[in-house]
């Protein structure tokens, strides 16, 4: 097939490359000259065959919104816009409606695969109308991993990014569970062989998983994780998952706890814990430091009598 | 009444003082000379009238255990031992049984009141057999605050410390809720008058409480809590509350979250978050830093494509 | 002062009444005839003195949005619209901007006080520009409780509802902490006197509070809460607090846990726990039921070997 | 090697079978006649070669304690007792010390593998002194899965059960994360193809794992999990993990949330939520049901003014 790829960063560039290797014709555009095949969205649209297919692979939010809006002005009924970035599913629904009003198709694709995607394929989670998804299947077949998995048409417009968002939410919970388990093991004097413990779990256990494999690799490189700071960014998807859960009245204690742990990891000092400390000061007075309730040398482990 | 007070620290000493002011005869003992009236437990026991009453006010754990054991050797059937420290309720049950085997009564008292107790009275939560508690009522009447509240005979031996433990668990949850609310308000540009906001809540609101009063006091002294580090100790009771909940299959998400926030506040770096960061490094590769998925200047807010 | 009150439900009606008792002139309007003084917003606007003050007390969302928009069409520069409902603070910011473009003032007021407000006054949390808030002080003075508390001008437009929202979030955490503490006490055989335990806490303890007072009242009416179903609605504010925390990267484990507990309380069956049960079935096979790992009668309490 | 297997339930019986297929000589005993090779522990001990090896595979707690104590009486210095059940690591430390005082070795083994272990091997997590573990390696080699993984000597006595316990804690967190993700997807109208979504994740995603594979199997059998009740038991290990975290001051928000969700799933009604509902009744009065704050039909979604 022919398609335009807008955004040639690591993800967009590699996906264009995988598509070309698969026999597709890709016209690439990005803002900066260099790798791009055309110098403007207008030119890209002119170069595409009918019905035109434009894959948008730019940052979520403003850049995606503006690109899709501009494509809506340039394209014609029957053409299709794909949003393969990290958009929020509610944005997809707006974009889908905006384009549908002009007869232009919209398909959203949540993409997983990172730096290995070029070689191994990308897991694709797709939302959109059946007719458009069917039309795009040759592209998806090339991008996805070989084998039976790694592709789903999850539902209408927005569904692709929705399930990708939830995938990432689950990922947050799993990573945090590994983190908590590691911390408890590391805190115990009892376990003298931490990396081998995790390595042993790669077979015959309930928790065997790709994340466990990555963890073993990380411990092989740095057995006490001494080179790594306990500081974790969060991406939009984790936040969106929790907010979507709140919107849908879905209890989400584990994934939210994982998100909050990331927030806390980035704080130099916690305002909430300042309050807790201040309150302890208030009701304990200097007693917090000196009240013993007893004359014993062991008194320093005794909590204040509150 | 006559009673012996063992442990003359801030709590024990003040309680002895309040009892004396109330007309009771108190024989005080502690390990270090100075404030003590007698030089040994043996002498204390000799000085008491029958049936003897010995109030133990030493640190929980070893010191309490040893003191009660020694009293069991010195006292006679009909005498009563009171544990007014911070013992775990399971310890109370053991001590009660150990003393009961010798015909000696045992009563546990959870005490709240801190530095204001001498003047305002101590809230008392009492566990033990009806007959012993009835015998001790004159003491409890003097120690408790005036008015209708501040005293409960909650149940058998251990019940006093059990409900005091739960009181403290609830306190953890409440303090953390105030902390989280404060942090959100402080994080918002919208609210320019934080101390007055909390002050205004002292009347007409659902959350009016002594802890809110303390918080207003803390903000009066230090409106941005800039002098206070977000570092909060935890006492045994918070941990015991969560562990008792687990033992009783009681869901306790809020109080446990408050406890875990205290643990985290004391960590320089979080081993769990090292794992999360290490895993992000593993699947993102250098991509975590540089992968944009797009050519836009906004790319730095884009999560890695995972 | 003169003012229009739009929405004469329990809150709006009682507030109008308290204002009249305080000497203000109130023109009331609501959709349904009966209690209303005028038959339309147009008539209400005509009846007010310059500069006009219109207090909107209708449901958040659509009704508030439409009412404010219509007032924007009817009012003139220098007039003031107050939103005293439960609007989201982001809506306030939009409304403030929309009205400011026409020279009309906007003030948002978070109101606490429920059914006792008519008699005891309402706690008011106010957002808006200084000039408008100053103009409205006579109204606020009448509505608020007597004494030094119960009123705050928290910041610009939106700040009033923002701090009211956080107030409710804190309330969620406190209520849940009491609930968890109660449940643990009720689960223990040790405590035979639950209502008296809570009653005793009304004095001399750290957790004394209005919520504790209410809890004692509830236990007086129904000592085992046997007439009450463990089913708790949530209001918008709890959800918004958690979502605002996520937006501001504020860790909020306790308040979110309280919110999720409410969500869960309303479920007949939990889809998440279906998954957990299904997974246990998958890895345990029928073994979940029958695998003992041993020949002992105690085997039924043994977890499957996973 | 020769060894005695005490406890011939599904786990012990299958392990004995796998050992025999691997060329070892196993003397089996259990309380009930039928499958057992000897009629008493005494006879079992007599039948074993020196140094004797006795693998205990009976329920944790009393049965294990009694069996190990009895073996301590029957065995001789140089013999080895293995606890392959689900004992708490603190029990292991006591058993190890008790046997060490008699010169008898003790090794604890956390075993994973369930019903597939006979065929695929069991993941083994081992604690104990080097000399004893070294002696037992032929047994472990036969029991473990083929390949490089599935066995670790994690540390001294207790370390085997400790890391197995943590493994199960991580498992709780992972399962709950999948559950929460599933629930959110199921709650959304957007996703019309839930089973295929999970199936697609088996390749190219971050969350690919054995648990995901099991989940796909469960959804294949019952696409809406309509035959499964959201009711999840918990095993000792989940509780112990949380309690060990509290003992070690390790924050464990995710795994504890997963544990509490299981507790809650088994409640007909939640006492904690009764309190929340009762408090809402108290401050809202009948207002909870009827207070609208407005005259609008949308009022039923408006929270009470609290």
UniProtKB/TrEMBL annotation, chains A, B, C, D:
GO MF annotations, alphabetized: NADP binding; phosphogluconate dehydrogenase (decarboxylating) activity
Domain 6-phosphogluconate dehydrogenase C-terminal: 160-302
Any one GO BP annotation for this protein: pentose-phosphate shunt
One Pfam match: 6PGD
Superkingdom of the source species: Bacteria
InterPro entries: 3-OH-isobutyrate_DH-rel_CS, 6-PGluconate_DH-like_C_sf, 6DGDH_YqeC, 6PGD_dom2, 6PGDH_C, 6PGDH_NADP-bd, HIBADH-related, NAD(P)-bd_dom_sf
Keyword field contains Transmembrane: no
Swiss-Prot/TrEMBL keywords: Gluconate utilization, Oxidoreductase
Similarity comment: family membership: Belongs to the HIBADH-related family. Belongs to the 6-phosphogluconate dehydrogenase family.
Protein name: Decarboxylating 6-phosphogluconate dehydrogenase
Organism of this sequence: Actinomadura craniellae
Gene: gnd
